[in-house]
Amino acid sequence: MSQFGRRLTAGALVSMFAACTVTRPPEHRSPTQHEISSQRLRQVDGRIDKLGHRIDTHVTEGSYPAPQGDALRHRLDVIHGEAHDMASKHGGGLTSGEQRVLNEELDTAAHAIE
């Protein structure tokens, strides 16, 4: 067999073996407790932000007078402060019970905003 033929055969074998190499899919790992508790805080913060935008929209559209909008924003600021005080006790996140309490407070605030 000529040298060209051997190289061609060797190249074909290398290509065939490379194509047969199986790559493992990335392993799925469960989130850590810290990641879960941090996500809870982000969810509460996101809800506070959305309610704040609703207040701004209502004030801009004239649905609320500015003092009422300020009072509602203050209420959200207090809840935000409570959330971050709670989170600071747990390394930056919330327990499920804390999130539940905060969501109940946010539910009440949301009803006042509508």
Would you write up a description of this structure?
- The chain has one domain (31-113).
- It is elongated and about 90 Å long.
- Helices cover 77% and strands 0% of the residues.
- It has helices at 3-20, 33-61, 66-88, 96-113.
- The protein has 114 residues and is mostly helical.
- Helix 2 (33-61) packs parallel to helix 4 and helix 3 (66-88) packs antiparallel against helix 4.
The tally of structural domains comes to 1
**Total number of helical segments?**
4
Sequence stretches where pLDDT stays below 50 over 5 or more residues: none
Output the structural class. mainly alpha
Helix percent reads over 70%
Query: Could you give a short account of the major beta sheet?
Result: none
Overall geometric form: elongated
Question: Using only CA atoms, what is the Rg?
Answer: 28 Å
- Provide the residue-averaged pLDDT: 87
* Element-level helix/strand string: HHHH
Q: Report how far the terminal alpha carbons are from each other.
A: 85 Å
Beta fraction: under 5%
Report the strand count: 0
Short characterization:
This protein has helices at residues 3-20, 33-61, 66-88, 96-113. The protein is mainly α.
SSE topology sketch:
Elements: H1 3-20, H2 33-61, H3 66-88, H4 96-113
List keywords for this structure.
114 residues; mainly alpha; 4 helices; 77% helix
